[in-house]
Specification:
Helices cover 41% and strands 17% of the residues. By secondary structure, it is α/β, with parallel strands linked by helices.
Length: 186
């Protein structure tokens, strides 16, 4: 709205909620679904900001994606949006470490990994609005599942693993919110 001002946030600590998981686990859906109940919140879905043609999916591309996400996170924080939800840009723990070095502020970080059985992920990938090709799905399926994010002993984030296999969007959102009372209390 022209002339309207966003109220100043009473929250002082910057928070970052990172949504990760394999393709079809529900990352983009949950990033969108969490925003309406996230106070002073903003969302970043790296799939929206990282579209290229060709899409190389190599280390150089993911470095660019991490820098873009980090820049947006900083911009949202500077504008008063203290709770930022970001998804679809980490492949493994070393990606997180590289990303974290791009953020000069020490935020509270919550890393939510969405997990789902392959059969459920395949169904979601085929039936969702975002179209993919069989060739793309086969290429993505060649990448082995990374467990370093959930096993990192020296991580500076709170890890939250949620199996979305039998959950709908509302159920998944409810579990995320229950796991992060610092953001979603009340």
């Amino acid at each position: 709205m022209p002339g309207s001002q966003r109220p100043a946030s009473p929250i002082r600590e910057h928070r970052l909620i990172i949504i990760g998981g394999e393709e079809g686990a529900g990352k983009s859906t949950i990033v969108r679904a969490l925003l309406p109940s996230t106070p002073y919140g903003a969302r970043i879905d790296a799939e929206d900001i990282g579209q290229t043609n060709p899409c190389p999916m190599d280390d150089t591309f993911f470095d660019l994606l991490r820098r873009n996400v980090a820049g947006l996170v900083e911009n949202f924080w500077a504008a008063g949006y203290v709770n930022v939800i970001a998804g679809s840009f980490l492949r493994c723990y070393s990606d997180y470490v590289s990303f974290r070095q791009l953020l000069p502020r020490p935020p509270a970080v919550f890393l939510v990994e969405l997990l789902a059985d392959k059969e459920v992920r395949d169904h979601r990938r085929i039936t969702r609005a975002k179209q993919t090709t069989q060739e793309w799905r086969d290429m993505v399926d060649q990448v082995p599942e990374d467990r370093t994010i959930r096993q990192a002993a020296d991580a500076d984030y709170r890890y939250i693993g949620i199996d979305t296999t039998g959950l709908d969007v509302a159920g998944t959102v409810q579990r995320v919110k229950a796991a992060i009372p610092e953001v979603y209390a009340g």
